[in-house]
Design brief:
Strand 10 (about 385), helix 18 and strand 11 (about 410-415) form a beta-alpha-beta unit. Helix 4 (about 75-90) packs across helix 5, helix 5 crosses helix 10 (about 175-190) and helix 20 packs across helix 23. With about 550 residues, this protein is α/β, with parallel strands linked by helices. Helices cover about 45% and strands about 10% of the residues. It is globular. The chain is built from 24 helices and 16 strands. It has three domains: about 55-270, Rossmann fold, CATH 3.40.50; about 275-460, 3-Layer(aba) Sandwich (Rossmann fold), CATH 3.40.50.720; about 465-500 and about 505-550, no CATH class.
Length: about 550
C-alpha cells in the first residue's frame, strides 16, 4: 500500500533548488520567473544585469500579458501568443490561463485548436511533449527514457487520425494532446511537470499534408493495423514500465482503432478513451439536466443519433446505463429507445453482415431509411444528438418536424469545431419559438427569443475528463471503470443550479471548473475505494485530500543547489 503523500505536488512555500545560473535559468520555461525574481534571487542566481531592475509580482506580469493578448484579434494569433508564453514561463502561462479560463478555453482548445492543428507545421515554434514514430519501433523504451521527468501522472496520446471533425491530420494532431493536458492543469490542478503529451506518428493518408513542404511528420501512408498494434503494445509496455502508475488517455483515433484500443488495454492498465467515455458522460449529464427541465425520465425519451462512431456509441452506452439504473429497464429494453444513422442511413439489422461491430447492439429490426428527415418523421424523437461532423444537417425541416411532435425537443449538436456543428443555437431556438433545449460541442452566444434570453449549454468534455483523471491519479486507481464515468456524469448534472436551468442551459458555468473537477475527482476516488481499485491509503477526508493534491500556479522561492 502506497502512502497518500506520494501524489502531492510541491508546496508553494517549499524552496526550489536550482543548479543553473544566469541565462540558463531565464531560458528554462520551468524555472524562469522573469521580472519576478527577487533582488536576493538575482544576486545568488547570477541574474543581476540580465533583467530590468524593477521586481514585478505575478499579478503585474499577468496584467502585462493580458494587455498584449487582447491587442490581437485573430484567434490563431492569440493561440500562438499563448504558446510563446508557455515556451518562456510555464508558471505564468497557467496563472494567466486559470484566471482567464472562459476567455481562453476557446483559444487553447475548441474551436481554435482545430485551426492550429491544420497549420501546425507552419506555426511550430518549440517542442512540447514527445513524438513516437514508426521508425522508433523496437526502440520505444529508449526513446521514452529521453523524457526528463521521472514522475509522469498522465499521458494523452493521439495518432492524429481523426482530429475533432477535421479528419486525418497526422503529426499535426499534436495540438490535441497538448491542449487536453493544458485543460487538465487549469481545470483540475494536475501538475504540469507530471503531464506528457505524445503524438504517435504512424503516417498519414492526407495527401495535402504529404505534399506540404513544411509538414513535420513522416511522409508515409498509414501503416497496417497489425504493425500499428505492435507499436501500440510496445508503447504501453514501455510507458507503464517507466511510470508504473501513469494514466494513459487515448485521444482522437479513428473508430476502427478507438474501440479496439479501449478494449485492449482498459483492464490491463490505467487508461480510458475520452472520445468514447468522456463524451458519453458529458452528454448523459446534459440529458439529465434536460430531464430536470422537462420533469421527465430518461426512459421516456426516444433518441435519434446522427452519427454512429465512437462518440455516438459512447453516449448511447452511457445513457443506456442511466436508463437501467434510473428505471430498472433491461439493457436491451434501453437500447430500443435509440435510432442511429451513419453515412448509409439508419443502422438496421438488414445491413448485416458487414455492419461494424460497435454498431451491432443498436441495429434496428425495422425498415431502412436513408435521410435524417425520414427517420425523424417515423420515430418522432424527443432528443436529437449530432456527432457527425456534418455542418447544417439539422436544418429547419428536420427541427420543425421534430418540434411538431415534441413540445420541448432536446437538440445536442456536439460536433467540433464550430464550423462542423450540425446547427446553430440561434436557428434551433427560432425554429422552435424558444422551446428547444440546446447544447453544442463548441460555444454559441446566448440568444434572445420572445423577450427571454436563452443560454446554450456547451457539452464540453472538459467538464468530465480533468476530474476523472485527477481522481484516478490521486487514489492510485488500478483501472478506470464505466461506473466512474457514470458517477462523474451524475455529479456534473447535480451541479447545475435551478437558476441555470431556467435559462435553458443544462451545464454549470465553466468558470467553476475547479470546483466541478474537485467534486468529480472526489466522487471518482470514492468509487475506486468502494470497488477496491485504489492502491493508495484511503484518507480520512477524501475531498480535502484531493483538494490538497491540486496544483496552483505560484512562484516558489529559489536557492542555489
Amino acid at each position: 500500500m502506497l502512502t497518500k503523500t506520494q501524489f502531492h505536488p510541491p508546496s508553494a512555500d517549499e524552496p526550489l533548488c536550482v543548479s543553473g545560473r544566469g541565462l540558463e535559468i531565464l531560458n528554462d520555461p520551468w524555472l524562469n520567473k522573469g521580472t519576478s525574481f527577487s533582488a536576493e534571487e538575482r544576486t545568488t542566481l547570477g541574474l543581476c544585469g540580465l533583467l530590468p531592475p524593477h521586481v514585478s509580482d505575478i499579478e503585474e506580469q499577468e496584467q502585462r500579458v493580458m494587455e498584449n493578448y487582447r491587442r490581437k484579434s485573430d484567434p490563431l494569433e492569440k493561440f500562438i501568443f499563448l504558446c510563446s508564453l508557455h515556451d518562456r514561463n510555464v508558471t505564468l502561462f497557467y496563472r494567466v490561463l486559470l484566471d482567464n479560463l472562459m476567455e481562453m478555453t476557446p483559444i487553447i482548445y475548441t474551436p481554435t485548436v482545430g485551426f492550429a492543428c491544420q497549420n501546425f507545421g507552419h506555426i511550430y515554434r518549440r517542442n512540447r511533449g514527445m513524438y513516437l514514430s514508426l521508425h522508433d519501433k523496437g526502440h520505444i523504451p529508449e526513446v521514452l527514457a529521453n523524457w526528463p521527468s521521472d514522475d509522469v501522472d498522465i499521458i494523452v496520446i493521439s495518432d492524429g487520425s481523426r482530429i475533432l471533425g477535421l479528419g486525418d491530420l497526422g503529426a499535426n494532431g499534436m495540438g490535441i494532446p497538448i491542449g487536453k493536458l493544458a485543460l487538465y492543469v487549469a481545470g483540475a490542478g494536475l501538475h504540469p511537470w507530471r503531464t506528457l503529451p505524445i503524438l504517435l506518428d504512424v503516417g498519414t493518408n492526407n495527401e495535402e499534408l504529404l505534399n506540404d513542404p513544411l509538414y513535420l511528420g513522416i511522409t508515409h501512408q498509414r501503416i497496417t493495423k497489425k504493425e500499428f498494434y505492435e507499436i501500440a503494445d510496445e508503447f504501453v509496455e514501455a510507458a507503464t514500465k517507466r511510470w508504473p502508475h501513469v494514466l494513459i488517455q487515448w485521444e482522437d483515433f479513428t473508430n476502427d482503432k478507438a474501440f479496439p484500443l479501449l478494449e485492449r488495454y482498459r483492464h490491463k492498465v490505467l487508461s480510458f478513451n475520452d472520445d468514447i467515455q468522456g463524451t458519453g458522460a458529458v452528454a448523459l449529464a446534459g440529458l439529465l439536466g434536460a430531464m430536470r427541465i422537462k420533469q421527465e425520465t430518461l426512459a421516456d425519451q426516444r433518441i435519434v443519433f446522427f452519427g454512429a462512431g465512437s462518440a455516438a456509441i459512447g453516449i448511447a452506452d452511457m445513457i443506456c446505463a442511466g436508463m437501467v439504473e434510473e428505471s430498472g429497464l433491461t439493457l436491451e429494453e434501453a437500447r430500443q429507445r435509440f435510432w442511429l444513422l451513419d453515412s448509409q442511413g439508419l443502422v438496421t439489422r438488414q445491413r448485416t453482415p458487414g455492419l461494424q461491430e460497435h454498431k451491432l447492439p443498436y441495429a434496428r429490426d425495422e425498415a431502412e431509411a436513408v435521410s435524417l428527415h425520414e427517420v425523424v418523421r417515423r420515430v418522432k424523437p424527443t432528443a436529437l444528438i449530432g456527432v457527425s461532423g456534418q455542418p447544417g444537417t439539422f436544418d429547419e425541416k428536420v427541427i420543425r418536424e421534430m418540434h411538431e411532435h415534441c413540445s420541448q425537443p432536446i437538440v445536442f449538436a456536439l460536433s467540433n469545431p464550430t464550423v462542423k456543428s450540425e446547427c446553430t443555437a440561434r436557428d434551433v431556438y427560432h425554429w422552435t419559438r424558444g422551446n428547444a433545449i440546446f447544447a453544442s460541442g463548441s460555444p454559441f452566444d446566448p440568444v434572445r427569443v420572445g423577450g427571454k434570453v436563452l443560454v446554450p449549454g456547451q457539452g464540453n468534455n472538459m467538464f468530465i475528463f480533468p476530474g476523472v483523471g485527477l481522481g484516478a491519479v490521486a487514489c492510485g486507481a488500478k483501472k478506470i471503470t464505466d461506473g466512474m464515468f457514470f458517477t462523474a456524469a451524475k455529479t456534473l448534472a447535480h451541479m447545475v443550479t435551478e437558476g441555470e436551468l431556467q435559462t435553458g442551459t443544462v451545464y454549470p458555468d465553466l468558470s467553476k471548473i475547479r470546483q466541478i473537477s474537485l467534486a468529480i475527482a472526489t466522487a471518482v476516488c470514492r468509487q475506486a475505494y468502494e470497488e477496491d481499485l485504489a492502491t493508495y491509503e484511503e484518507p480520512e477526508d477524501i475531498r480535502e485530500y484531493v483538494r490538497d493534491c491540486m496544483y496552483h500556479p505560484q512562484y516558489r522561492p529559489y536557492e542555489p543547489d
